Amino acid sequence: MEKARLYSGMQPSADSLQIGNYIGALMQWRGLQDSYDAYFSVVDLHALTVPQDPAELREKTRRTAAQYIGAGIEPTRSTLYVQSHVSAHPELAWILSTITGFGEAGRMTQFKDKSSRYGADTTSVGLFTYPVLMAADILLYQTDVVPVGEDQKQHVELTRDLAERFNSRFGETFRVPNAVIQQDTARIYDLQNPTSKMSKSSDNQSGVLYLLDEPSVNAKKIMRAVTDNDGTVRFDRAEKPGVSNLLVILSAITGRQIPAIEDEFAGRGYGDFKKAVAEAVVNEFEPVRNKALELMADPAELDRLLAVNADKAAAVANETLANVYDRVGLLRRR
Ligand code: ATP
Ligand code: LTN
């Protein structure tokens, strides 16, 4: 039987990914790549929706791809590519934008949050149409499942609506995808501010564990993580957000259940517990970081891998796009 198709992606918005991206996305992707025909993109066109330095964007794109591979996304098994290498993405996005309502796009909460943060004058039209490009990413590959965080659920809903609308207007063209929402329990918070989500593009780096940082830097950040005065290693998001966050990290990385960890550290101080978390994180990151650094040291080989995968992706995407162009009535070029 043919494997169902899976699509996901991440923006190259930082020099290094952080542990939330690893636990919340990469570990899951790695686990899914055997059971699905999986496509993973570095969505550089999406990154352009906020100002980027051109040289840095190029570098971040390579680095993000290297970290996908370092984390175990295998470029021979999964189709791991850079979004801008497949020109069908912006082409389909244009077509989809013509069937997206202005009000419909305006209801996207991520756009509302970001535009109110940046102000109307610095908010680009690209930021407004961001979800339409995301819909194009997904629909080009006749995707069945889209693993994403809770914050992207609304964008996948829009994608489904657009697929259904297009199919009913122009005939069956797109598979209607389903979101697979990553468990909220896999959400990682900032070590210094454990009630806000950890982010790779955070202004303050002291609470963020970067995959590519030196092991000693990450160990230090964990030893300095904000906790509380109660002194017991116990999961309680409301009262003990710092300790709970460290418990989630240790549990996700070791695969052990939180109660078993609580038992192990009963009657022991936070120092011991933090040491165990630091050791687990450093050991987990080491091979990921080494592999990513190795790939980054040979950009020609990395670019070659990405080109092979872009060709694989383009073959699928172009077929969908040609069908779409026909359906909407664009004249074929002979
Ligand atoms: P940015 O700062 O650029 O918004 P980010 O680190 O918040 O980046 P995204 O690029 O928005 O991350 O998300 C990439 C993937 O990582 C998504 O699947 C998202 O759900 C997951 N992810 C991001 N941050 C976390 C987190 N703190 N905990 C768990 N998963 C996360
Ligand atoms: N918007 C997503 C990244 C993204 C994506 C996609 C995820 C772009 N295109 C297609 C899944 C499928 C984010 O910010 N995490």
The CATH architecture assignment of the largest domain turns out to be 3-Layer(aba) Sandwich
How many independent structural domains?
2
CATH-derived topology of the largest domain:
Rossmann fold
Q: List low-confidence stretches.
A: none
What is the CATH superfamily label of the largest domain?
HUPs
CATH class of the largest domain: Alpha Beta
Helix percentage: 40-55%
Strand order of the largest sheet: 1-2-3
Mean pLDDT over the full residue set: 96
The share of residues in extended strands comes to 5-15%
Ends: how far apart? Answer: 37 Å
Number of strands: 5
Instruction: Tell me the Rg in angstroms.
Output: 21 Å
Tell me what the structure shows.
This protein has 334 residues and is mainly α. The protein folds into two domains: 5-186 and 299-328, Rossmann fold (3-Layer(aba) Sandwich), CATH 3.40.50.620; 205-293, Tyrosyl-Transfer RNA Synthetase. Helices cover 54% and strands 7% of the residues. It has a three-stranded parallel β-sheet with strand order 1-2-3. Strand 1, helix 1 and strand 2 (37-42) form a beta-alpha-beta unit. Helix 3 (54-70) packs across helix 12 (270-296), helix 4 (88-97) packs across helix 7 (125-140) and helix 4 (88-97) packs parallel to helix 13. The longest helix has 30 residues, at 299-328. The mean pLDDT is 96. The structure holds adenosine-5'-triphosphate and L-tryptophanamide (LTN). Adenosine-5'-triphosphate (ATP) is lined by residues 10-11, 13, 18, 20-21, 23-25, 148-149, 182, 186-188, 197-201.
